[in-house]
Structure to design on (631 residues):
């Protein structure tokens, strides 16, 4: 594994990734939680028991065949370490947790950021799911042309709301 | 300018506006504010000065534990203004040097005595979970808390918690606190807020408490200390400059009072506290220039680091702060690289433009009252400092004094909640109730949480300080 405790971010090669044919069928969860910490709400939130963990200090592993892409784990994860990926009609899509202001609107163009916060492209917001009643914390889905970016895009930058 | 107008997680219920006088100037404040917060929001940086060298001092801890914000209020010197609620028309002025005694005679009301079965000192998650267990088992404890509100560290934690579902994982700390406080209210547990326990007198078994001007002598059959931990200061040039804050203070300012501690922050320390508070600074609209960490690796959970990195915030390991520079407020900070023996690497200094330095360099258990009570103490680096020697059921070397939470060793809210329960069941057992089953169950849950790599340190520490 990469020296993520020095750099603070993972390398794509550190991660388990679903086969392309699954990603092309529907959204699938991917996890970036690689350290043994006492935590398991993702496991509890999954309606189809697709997340396996060996005791509360275990590392989550996703059964990509089972996952139905519901996004519950993305919404609940306190580490903001769960994402959904999908390729549809030649476009890449990523759903990611977002807890900052301002929130983008559906249809907005946003900057796509990688694990170091570097801009890697632009995308369109195609979905916003508010997670909690009294906060703006949301799962945001972005769509973009370069499908290889589904392994890279992990944050967005809202380019000021011109409205 | 320093007021947070909108926030992704929090809504600030500031109350109406009032006015008070600061050195002859009118200051407008929100009803929910403390004096120091109102002054800071209005732009004040220098809150006091050192008594000999007259160096400027800013607010540092923001929770009534240091002396940087002490002022003269309505003629009374040395008042901690960070925990003093504002009142219409109060007269506030800075005191330069040591405070002067008020002129004339000041009347304090005569002491009040209270007889209790169980007294809990500290209303954080450990103290509150214990109080709830007591009340559910027919014993009404007295809870003493020095802050205006119950909840301890939890009322500032806007992030979702880790742990298992039972201790509220996936739920934000503020919500967990809210639920506990509601329960305490519903169970009609007597609480004294804005009340500091300041002394324990083993000869008579009395706890001295001040609630504002009222001295209260508490005599209790059992005491449970859940006093938590205080922030650790590190030595560097300029560490007393206004703009250098304990990270917890920054958190109190932005998450309780809705005030930005600064515009551009250097965070010192990449443990969980430093990482989480840096992320919360971003949520409050503050720029985080970077996080420096003396160790070669990030000490907190990786997921917290990743959250920051994807916003472009650098985390620089093997690096520490060397100097804070500025006249009456931080204007720059100098950082320096360290070798693997933590020695400075010559000529590796870099100057950063920041107006705020936050220190998150660890917590120290708040054990002074326990030491005064005569409980035997032992130093354990794994538990973050001197802690009382205790048995597996959290009884100290004094038969009627128990401990729970960060005061027994700095850990987590999830374990603090469980320790609070365990201590309560242990005391109930001493009182003759059969709580063996609950004691075993709670100890097992604690073992489970401590079974991972992050628990290794705690288990090592416990081996050093547990008797029986
Ligand atoms: C930034 C940050 C993030 C955290 N994140 C997590 C997390 O994700 N998950 C997790 O499980 N834990 C987390 N924690 C840790 C958790 O908040 C603490 O471990 C927990 O609050 C400890 O509980 P406690 O009751 O022992 O102490 P505290 O919460 O510190 O409460 C102690 C209380 O005692 C009062 N007190 C102290 N002395 C006196 C006195 N003499 N008289 C009267 N009152 C007194 C204090 O005012 C305080 O309210 C975090 C902590 C911080 C700072
Ligand atoms: S997306 Fe839904 S189905 Fe897939 S792992 Fe997460 S919770 Fe389970
Ligand atoms: S909820 Fe998130 S942080 Fe917790 S174990 Fe699951 S993936 Fe990791």
């Amino acid at each position: 594994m990469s020296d993520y405790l020095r750099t603070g971010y993972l390398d794509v090669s550190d991660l388990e990734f679903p086969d392309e044919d699954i990603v092309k069928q529907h959204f699938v969860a991917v996890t970036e939680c690689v350290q043994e910490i006492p935590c398991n709400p993702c496991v509890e939130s999954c309606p189809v028991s697709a997340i396996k963990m060996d005791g509360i200090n275990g590392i989550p592993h996703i059964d990509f065949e089972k996952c139905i892409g519901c996004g519950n784990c993305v919404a609940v994860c306190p580490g903001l370490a769960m994402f959904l990926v999908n390729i549809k009609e030649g476009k890449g899509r990523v759903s990611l947790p977002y807890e900052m202001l301002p929130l983008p609107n559906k249809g907005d163009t946003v900057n796509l950021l990688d694990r170091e916060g570097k801009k890697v492209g632009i995308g369109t917001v195609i979905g916003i799911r508010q997670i909690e009643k009294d906060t703006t914390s949301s799962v945001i889905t972005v769509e973009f042309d370069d499908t290889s970016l589904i392994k890279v895009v992990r944050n967005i930058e809202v380019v000021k709301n011109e409205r | 300018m320093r007021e947070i107008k909108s926030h992704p997680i929090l809504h600030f219920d500031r109350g109406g506006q009032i006015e008070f006088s600061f050195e002859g100037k009118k200051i407008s404040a929100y009803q929910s504010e403390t004096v120091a917060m109102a002054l800071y929001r209005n732009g004040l940086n220098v809150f006091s000065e050192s008594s000999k060298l007259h160096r400027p001092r800013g607010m540092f801890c923001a929770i009534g534990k240091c002396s940087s914000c002490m002022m003269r209020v309505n003629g009374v010197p040395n008042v901690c203004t960070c925990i003093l609620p504002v009142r219409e028309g109060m007269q506030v002025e800075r005191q330069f040097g040591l405070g002067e005694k008020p002129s004339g005679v000041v009347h304090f009301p005569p002491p009040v005595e209270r007889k209790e079965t169980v007294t809990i000192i500290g209303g954080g998650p450990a103290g509150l979970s214990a109080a709830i267990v007591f009340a559910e088992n027919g014993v009404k404890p007295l809870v003493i808390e020095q802050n205006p509100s119950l909840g301890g560290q939890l009322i500032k934690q806007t992030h979702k918690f880790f742990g298992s579902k039972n201790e509220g994982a996936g739920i934000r700390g503020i919500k967990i606190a809210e639920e506990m406080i509601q329960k305490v209210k519903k169970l009609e547990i007597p609480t004294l807020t804005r009340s500091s326990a300041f002394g324990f007198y083993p000869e008579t078994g009395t706890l001295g408490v001040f609630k504002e001007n009222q001295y209260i002598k508490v005599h209790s059959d059992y005491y449970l200390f859940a006093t938590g931990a205080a922030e650790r200061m590190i030595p560097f040039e300029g560490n007393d400059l206004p703009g250098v804050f304990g990270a917890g203070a920054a958190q109190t300012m932005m998450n309780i009072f809705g005030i930005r501690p600064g515009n551009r922050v250097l965070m010192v320390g990449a443990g969980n506290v430093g990482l989480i508070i840096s992320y919360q600074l971003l949520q409050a609209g503050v720029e985080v220039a970077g996080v420096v960490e003396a160790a070669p690796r990030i000490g907190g959970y990786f997921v917290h680091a990743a959250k920051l990195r994807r916003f472009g915030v650098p985390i620089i390991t093997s690096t520490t702060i060397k100097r804070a520079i500025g006249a009456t407020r931080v204007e720059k900070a100098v950082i320096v690289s360290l070798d693997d023996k933590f020695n400075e690497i010559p000529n590796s200094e870099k100057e950063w433009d920041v107006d705020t330095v936050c220190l998150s360099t660890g917590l120290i258990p708040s054990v002074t009252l326990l030491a005064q009570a005569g409980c035997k103490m032992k130093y354990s680096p794994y538990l973050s400092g001197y802690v009382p020697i205790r048995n597996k059921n959290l009884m100290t070397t004094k038969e009627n004094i128990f401990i729970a939470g960060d005061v027994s060793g700095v850990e987590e809210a999830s374990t603090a909640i469980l320790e609070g329960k365990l201590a309560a069941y242990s005391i109930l057992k001493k009182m003759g109730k059969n709580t063996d089953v609950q004691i075993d169950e709670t100890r097992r849950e604690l073992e489970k949480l401590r079974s991972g790599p992050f628990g290794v340190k705690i288990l090592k520490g416990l081996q050093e300080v547990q008797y029986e």
Remarks:
- The two ends of chain B are 57 Å apart (CA to CA).
- The interface with chain A takes residues 6-9, 11, 159-165, 169-170, 282-283, 285, 296-298, 301-313, 315, 317, 414, 448-455 of chain B (CB under 8 Å).
